[in-house]
Amino acid sequence: MNPIFSLIPSERGPVLKIREQLLNSALLISLEITGLEPLTTAGELVAKGQKIAFDPYNKLPSVHSSVSGKVLEVKKDFILIEEHGDLVAEPLAFNTTDSSSMLADLRNAGIDVSRFKQGCTLIINTVPAETGIDGHRFLIEEFNHIMCEGLDFLKKALSPKASAIAVPQGMAWTLPGCTAHEIKPVYPNGLPAMIIKTVTGKEMPAGVCVVDAATLYRIGRTVHGKQPVTEIMIKVGNTLFQTPVGTTVGLLVSKAGYTLSEGDRVVLGGPLSGRAVYSLNHGISADTQGITVIAGDKEPVTKDSPCVGCGECVIRCPARLMPNMISRHAEFGLFENTKAYFIGSCFECGLCAYWCTAKRPLLQYIRLAKKELFSKPILEDLRK
User: Is Lipid metabolism among the key words of this record (predicted)?
Assistant: First the structure.
């Protein structure tokens, strides 16, 4: 099997903690989620854990400062903070009886609860999303008690009708009250849509909520420590980092031992469905689970070449779509036409682009069309 498709968890390697005092550059706290409003201004001193941006419509997760420091710059899409001092925000209070209040408390702490539904079938996913993005193993083996605390809180908030845990074949990982389902560790089986199909036997049924191990860990740690999300676990190469949110990509890549050359690509996520960063000063967000470095001479770069009509992308698509037709319409700005090819059913695994004979940027065309079609309606729907 091609290693790029393997989801077999790697052996547990070193865990490197990036402490605030070791940061040799300012933190860049991303506000890429459209609609968040800053709560701070340039020159202000902020405490670690202090809320610095929020959604006035109470739908999207709040953002907090991951260090004590001075705000250097506030822009529409980021807040730049320089580490300074030892200020710490007051502990958070969590409701443990009312479901709506419990979810609101999680959102206020920086957890995305938009897909959490009352009475759902709850699936905890411990299968790596992509090759190399396998920090789940460390979390579930080392912090099982924290994940159990997160699961207990989540069950109280959601009252799920059933609970399951999806694990890679050969792994004896368990969580209390969850029925175990072994998943063949081959990409794209770890993506939520595929997990749902394997566990339930149905394609995208209503009332199913998939929570990955990293999110469950963040919930447990937040509830246990009464602190918002300010640190994450992120896999870079063979090293698992525990680092503040907003740490620059360049610092993590350097600490992982990489020396970048011209043409190398640094990707947030995995090699198939990740997104390349435009700058090494890009700050990691709370939901970033891994960084992949792709050498410029290892993989052919995509290009805007014409489709040769081979049909390889159609054969490989796990959602049984026609990426060739979607990309053709998107390429020429005919975004409305892509609806006829069920673009909304694409879960962006990237297999179409990987297997494309002409090396067309199929995934990028699909994402462009989705943004043009759905970004504004989705935002408006969230605020209703």
Answer: no
Position 262 pLDDT exceeds 90? no
pLDDT range class, residue 202, cuts 50, 70, 90: very high
Q: Rounded distance, CA 95 to CA 200, Å? A: 31
Whether 20 is covered by a domain: the verdict is: no
**How far is the C-alpha of 372 from the C-alpha of 49, rounded, in Å?**
35
Q: How many domains does the chain contain in total?
A: 4
Would you say the C-alpha torsion 375, 380, 381, 382 has a positive or negative sign? positive
- Do 179 and 323 belong to one domain? no
CA proximity to 46, closest of 8, 92, 79: 79
Indicate the residue among 91, 112, 145 that finishes a domain. 91
pLDDT band at 24 (very low <50, low <70, confident <90, very high): low
Q: Quick: pLDDT tens for 223-241.
A: 999 999 999 999 998 889 9
Same domain for 142 and 266, yes or no, is no
| pTM tops 0.85, yes or no | yes
* Encoded tokens for 96: 């443990």
Note whether 46 and 172 are same-domain residues: no
Average pLDDT, the chain: 90
Note whether residue 232 is domain-resident.
Answer: no
Q: Are 71 and 44 in contact (CB under 8 A)?
A: yes
Q: Which domain holds residue 40?
A: 25-91
In the structure, what pLDDT confidence band is assigned to residue 349 with cuts at 50, 70 and 90? very high
Say yes or no to pLDDT of 17 above 80: no
Specify whether 101 is located in the same domain as 63.
no
Question: Are 354 and 339 within 8 A, CB to CB?
Answer: no
The tokens for 267 are 């990707």
Asked if 145 and 39 sit in the same domain, the reply is no
* Residue 183 and residue 189 in contact, taking contact as beta carbons nearer than 8 Å: yes
State the residue for tokens 């822009």.
75
Q: What is the CATH number of the domain that holds 44?
A: 2.40.50.100
Of 318, 322, 312, 326, nearest in space to 365 by CA: 326
Residue pair 80/94 in contact by the 8 Å Cβ criterion: no
